[in-house]
Amino acid sequence: MSDRVEGRPRNFNILINAGILFVLVSASAVAGMVMGPEQPQGMTVVATVKKN
Prior knowledge:
Blueprint: H1 11-35, H2 41-51
């Protein structure tokens, strides 16, 4: 792992992981707002799959 990331500082991977987490959290938050906050997220996924 360290051989591949030789030229970059170690914080670079931390930034990438934080960015991915931020995108996932924001996407799930937007999905929760669209589907309605009263439903748990697992149920919304099942409902959308069953609709299609």
